[in-house]
Amino acid sequence: MRNAGHISRLFQGWQTWLTGLFTKAQVSVVQMRNCASKRFLLSRAGSSERGDVPGWVLVVLMTTGLVTAIWMIAAPRLTAILRNSLDSMNGIR
């Protein structure tokens, strides 16, 4: 019986600790949500609707350039791989 009481107290201690931890986590989530919504409202009130257009244009242009460069290098090899796989499938019939 002595071990059962010890295990029961240990379990109650863990339960109390976990309850406190989850309560703190819930409070933190609510505080973060409130802070984020306040920050969003303040940023919307003090700025224009334009956004970061030059940054997005730069990202799109750089991505397009990288994809084009990689495609130019890899296209002959990819074409050969596709042709070989299709030819091998024709031999299955």
Please describe what this structure looks like.
89% of the residues lie in helices and 0% in strands. It has helices at 2-46, 53-90.
Features:
93 residues; mainly alpha; 2 helices
Briefly, what is this?
The chain is an all-alpha fold and 93 residues long.
Oligomer: single chain
Distance between the termini: 75 Å
| Largest sheet data | none
Q: Give the low-confidence spans.
A: none
Order of helices and strands: HH
The share of residues in helices is over 70%
Radius of gyration using CA atoms only: 30 Å
Percent of sequence in beta strands = under 5%
Query: What's the pLDDT, averaged over the residues?
Result: 75
Class computed from helices, strands and strand pairing: mainly alpha
Give the overall shape: flat
> Helix count, per DSSP?
2
| Number of strand elements | 0
List the helices and strands and how they pair.
Elements: H1 2-46, H2 53-90
